[in-house]
Amino acid sequence: MNISSDITVNEGSSVTLLCLAIGRPEPTVTWRHLSVKEGQGFVSEDEYLEISGITRDQSGEYECSALNDVAAPDVRKVKITVNYPPYISNAKNTGVSLGQKGILRCEASAVPLAEFQWFKEETRYPEIRDGATLKLSRLATGLDGVRIENKGRMSTLTFFNVSEKDYGNYTCVATNKLGNTNASITLYGPGAVIDGVSSASRALACLWLSGTLFVHFFIKF
What we know:
By secondary structure, this protein is mostly beta strands. It has one helix and 20 strands.
């Protein structure tokens, strides 16, 4: 007879959903969260569903089912969208040789989707809008041949021809109406020391591991 409309709330809010049904005999009303693993979606057996301090994991579709064993259950759905501030889930340092193409990636989860900005030290890259792609003009430091591209949760900063001036620390900032967060990402060249380990040492370690695995495989077979 009556069911709540789709709703959008901020994380931490309290939510009450209503599902009124009539029938003879009186139907049993059950709420179930559809956006979870099979067998874990049961929520409550009541006309009202109350969620205190809702989390992002509790977003999605909720199904109200009214059943009195006379016929198939009558089913309706309500969608809850939970807004939450950005958090950066993927931002890795990248090593690139001079003259090669280098890409820094920054992935942020957020609802609504985050907007991205890139900085080198304290300088924000000036932007020229060209559809969905942001092409950068020349900076005071002499950087050019660089492109920012934002697609959904991912922002990439691409250097088409890496030079010495491109190496250094970059900051990715992700922002939506609920807040912002940032991550530091380093573009480095051969021989650079990152987190106390040189890129050359990383390469030697990989070669040593590959050789060890090859010898082990050769001896075994």
